[in-house]
Amino acid sequence: MKIFEITKLYFDSYSRKDINFFYYILDNKVSLVDWAISLSGKDAVLKNIKETFQNFQNISVNVRNIEINGNISVTNFEINLDKEKLNVIDKITFTENNQIIFIEAFKI
Hints:
The chain is an alpha+beta fold.
């Protein structure tokens, strides 16, 4: 699967709260950095994703644009967490095996 398709599936899986996808796609050494947190390791990132899924009844992601440059995808999207709307850009770095090794999120 190519990085574009994996990125699209990443956001589709987030909207569906499909934690199984994240077990598969995250590298053991993954890091997540956003405006509020900085996490390292697959267990810590998965815990954060699970907590988000539990804390919000309704999650939907509207992807506006995905750009690929080598092993990096940059996605501009709107995420709805119950009644809260956020505009975000995610920069996702992939390993040679197309697993996610680094996620950097920027609120815009």
